[in-house]
Amino acid sequence: MATHHYLKYFNVLSLFNTKRTRDIFLVNPTATPIREEAENIHVHVFDFNATSFQEKTFSEIGDTFPFRDNNNITWINVDGIRKKDVEHVCTHYGIHYLITEDILSMGQRPKMDNLNPVLYCLLNMLYFNEKAGTVETEQISIVLGKQFVFSFQEDAQRDVFNPIREKLKITGSKLRICGADYLCYALLDIIIDNYYLVMEKIGERIEFLEDRIIRSSNKRSLAEINALRKELIVLKRNVSPVRDLINGFIKSDSELLEDRTIKYFKDVHDHIIQANDLAENYRDMMINLQDLYLSNVNLKMNEVMKVMAIVTCLLAPATVIGGIFGMNFDKLPYMHHQYGFYIAATSMIIIPIIMVFIFRKRGWF
């Protein structure tokens, strides 16, 4: 049983997840995505101003239409993407058809568009799967309009917005006092802050792997290095473009953004630059880990070769002596001596012992 348990580690190819590689690299933005539409959608509406707040949950997108012109700030979070619902709500709120296509798209690069009368941004929320050790993504589209914010999510089971929901319930909170542009900032800020949590998990795995490689390097270590490098590619692909996205808000001259809100977007811009630098640092660490692994493997090989060389040197005197006295000549010294064998055997033992002392004195081992 013990032997069978370790046999899987001798198959190097089985340690590398090629499907994960295909999932990461096979992205074709020119191909029409085949999205599996959600069976049900969950629509959460947060309608508020400085003094009042109400939270509603609907199963039909049309139930949100009365909130459009009530002079409150409205956040409509749609969990689950269905083509007819997205087209319906975008038509009602005057959202451009290109934005509708982007909301329905899959595998898009994070971006920001200014298409009057709304601002639109698309990016990914990141989660870390502890069990699989992978970075998981969920595409989210945010539409900022006059006194409303739409957010379209794919997964109804999870998101990172709970702290915002709790703050909205607090009378006098900044989210309640400020406008829709501040709510948009808050959504982007918490998404980017969650990137740090994912990177922290990856950092812990890198440190653990580094300690294990220093202690002992094996085929499993190489497979884990390869797997972590793939996850860093996913991380870098999703974090890096967000810098341009936030820059778009900062440089936008849209009337939807108040001057006092721009400074908050600048703060988010600083956060995403720092996150991007951290992702680069992790990438460098993975390169160093691979070099460390190769150095350890070479060191082990050198140790093996050194031991084999020493053993060969120690056996050389016995080989030479045995070869001399084994020659087929009629007359050899001590050929017929009564102690000839003992003299040869003693020489075969004493000479290697002397060689050991000489090697030790020179620090060869």
How does this structure look, described?
The structure is a single chain. The chain has 365 residues and is of the alpha+beta class. The protein has 2 domains: 295 residues, 2-Layer Sandwich (Beta Polymerase, domain 2); 59 residues, Up-down Bundle (Methane Monooxygenase Hydroxylase, Chain G, domain 1). 55% of the residues lie in helices and 15% in strands. It has 11 helices and 7 strands. Strands 2-1-3-7-6-5-4 form a 7-stranded mixed sheet, sandwiched between helices. Strand 5 and strand 6 form a beta hairpin. Helix 7 packs parallel to helix 10. The longest helix is centred in the last third of the chain and has 67 residues. It is rod-shaped and about 120 Å long.
At a glance:
The protein has helices at residues 2-7, 18-25, 83-92, 97-104, 162-168, 174-177, 180-215, 219-239, 242-251, 259-325, 340-361; strands spanning 42-48, 53-58, 73-79, 111-115, 118-129, 134-145, 148-153. The chain has 365 residues and is α+β, with helices and mostly antiparallel strands. It has 2 domains: 2-296, Beta Polymerase, domain 2, CATH 3.30.460; 303-361, Methane Monooxygenase Hydroxylase, Chain G, domain 1 (Up-down Bundle), CATH 1.20.58.
